Amino acid sequence: MSIFKVKHLWSNEKLQSEHYDEGIQNSYCIKVDKFNSHSDSDCIVVGEGSQLKIYKPNTETPQSQVILESQQNDVILQVETGKFVFDSSDRQILVLHPQSYSIFFLEKREGHVEAGDQNYLKNSIKHSFTRKSYSVIVGPFGNTKSRDLICIQALDGTLSFFDQDAFLFMCIFEDVIIPGPVLYVSSTDFFVISKSTWVLEVYSYQQLGEFSELSARQHKKNIPQWSYSPGEEISSLQVTRTSSNFSSIIALGERYLYCFQDNGLMKYIIRFDFMPVCFHAYLIGWYYEPNSRLLVMVASEDSKLYIYEGTTLLWSCDLMHKTISLSRCFIKNLSGGLVTLSRNGIVHVSYLGTEPDLNSTVAPMNMPAESEDIQAELQDIEEELDKMLENGDSQNFPTEEIINIKTEVGKASKSFIDNNYSERSIINCPLVTTLTCDDPKQIQSIQITYSCTQPFSVVDNTIYLEDINGTEIIETRILLTDEVDISNATIKMLFTVIDCSGKITVLTSNVLVPINFYACVVNIDKEYQCKLYFSMNQTNLSLETIFKDLTDPSSTVTLSYKNTSKLVTIKHMEDHYIIEADEFTEIFPVLQYFVEKLKEHYLNMNIDSCKALFKASPELIKNMTHKFLKCIEVHAKERVILKNLEEELNVLQSQFTLIQKKLLVQYGSLPPGNCDSLEFLMRDTHKSIVTIAKRMLESKDKVSRASLVIICNRSLYCTFTFDSVILSLNYKNYHKYFSAACELSSVGNLTLYIMKCSNPEYSNIKILEETLSFETFHEDIQEWEEAVTQASSYVLNNILKKSDKDKEKLAPVTDQDILSHVNLKRFIKQTKIILEKIFLEVFDQSENERGKEKVTRIEEIVEVI
């Protein structure tokens, strides 16, 4: 996100009606020009549905800036200006309808009363035609000096030329199936046509006159002046006169911006890292000046504005709204304002600035000012700020003291009614949040974000609240979705609070999902392989005190997970508890719930020093370290496979695009050519693309799952809340990878929980949490190894104090690709040493016990690629 934002000057938002039909406007429905009747400032002509609106922005006078609103008989497709009437000094407005166009004069009649001047449209020409129109191109075709001619592009791609209301000729192109942008270059009398084959072809006006409907029937080929194949669809074209001899043609594609001279010479290409929506090119200075500069403004899909000079990015900022059209205007007190048309039909006039304008009533300072006056004004403002800070408002309290948060989880059910009023059969339970605000006037808005790990999910991930009352009750539902092991039963809630002054405060609340939501009591006796012994530093409670809703009084409780049917047994002995399961992956949710309930019980008894006492098995530590190192290797392998698949997919995509272009040419020819071989090749290429895409999804899924595993195991050594990102893939063979990731996640959270209880005062945990870059795990960008390599070197050298023996044994990681065989092996060795040292510090006990329970170094058992 850019730190710079455009400064708002004027908009027609307050002049718009409450109801707006989105989609009735396109980028051609706005035009900025100057007329003789309003020569002191530019006017903005906007077509909205069947209404034609003309604005004259002015920030000095409080008068209405709406010059005129006119209701047309049909929908407005495009608005253009020019001199279409012979021997007229003023510019006229051309309004394009689906099957007609009209030409108007903007006239002003001076008023003799207080009502002021009257503006009206004088209809000069109206002409109808039979073909459905798509766009209109105007200009002095054929180097006419007295007026502009009109070219109408129909939906079938044909070009019809008119002189005022007289039809001249029509051009039909065989390779144009879908209409695209068409541009007229007045300096060379050329037409630039974007065809359906993704090729830009340039014809002269004389060639188009010869290439009329009669000559097309005789299959007469017309060779273009020059052509260029961008390999992508061109969304818009613009021409700007840049010198006395040449004009520059700018074309915007899906990912590239192309700049040509009017003779076909390529000047430069810009590749974007964003999705461009529209652009506007303009010249600073006059075209005959040697120091004139061509600048290009590009608006992106995420509401950003980028300004380029050549291939150099000069400026970027936030537009603060979705834009479909860009332009420039010259109004009073603002030379070169930015005019944008948003998707909801609002016209904005703004200018570039570094911060949002907090005082919109102040006109921009274009006139020179004395430095002494500015200094005196700054001094007055500083004195007022000092007074405000000294006085202070005793009624303003911190946000944490104003808002009270209370959460409650309801009983589970097997179905519920969703937002679409349809019944969904899935295990769910309500999550009710009660927000109590002591002073609602100080709160502007609150956004609640829910975060959880699979198999849990929340119906509404984000809830936004405005106009906060004294008490707000928010209800959503927790769902139990997938048949995988539960890695974490905690729902994390983030409350983003914005107060009346604009200050943002983030509050956090964690909710533990009740055990009766995802488990139930069963009467099954069996032997388990994994057992975990622990006790409390207070009196051990009976199981019926903890599991009130699940069991009868007994010293043994067996639980079965509802989504996986796996079993966990809890036994209460005289001085300790035993949790048994077939795998460690099944222990953590029950252990977490059990210990937290014990702490809650003792807290109600005013005992806040309760904690669980575990004995960390060296065998468990050894197994988890081995799994972590093995997961790094698997993650690196999957990244290499994914990279190869992406390269192969790029080749197939280029091949498929080429076949599409040739097929379009064959389909559009008269008569159509034989397309059987091309269709077979396209189907075969499409099948290969689908196969590679599935393999890429599978590889991405493996990389993501490997990332989850690394996070789970890495969380053993730092305080980190594990939030898994689950790709919704519908392939059966993905389930085993997904299930394996959740199992390792459960083991990682279990070990983390044991380590926290064993040594809660470990000071290096926070440093490791900040150093290890877990945020680099992303669905599309998996570069964890590159980030952690540098972090691991810092931790090993500066925090853990690498010994001389380790320095001899450990070779440094080079600057080459971290995924290479040599670097990956060195990185694994480096990580292994870090884990050994952390284990020694975390589970270090007294000096006497250190020799007995010392964690031995783990042998090299990870096989690298």
Summarize the structure.
With about 850 residues, the protein is α+β, with helices and mostly antiparallel strands.
Q: Which descriptors apply to this entry?
A:
865 residues, alpha+beta, six-stranded antiparallel sheet, five-stranded antiparallel sheet, 27% helix, elongated, disordered C terminus
Any overview of this molecule?
The chain is of the alpha+beta class and 865 residues long. The chain contains 15 helices and 43 strands. The strands form ten sheets. It has a six-stranded antiparallel beta sheet. Strands 29, 30, 31, 33 and 35 form a five-stranded antiparallel beta sheet that branches. The radius of gyration is 35 Å and the shape is elongated. The relative contact order is 0.06. Mean pLDDT is 78; it is low at 356-365, 705-741, 777-782 and 845-865.
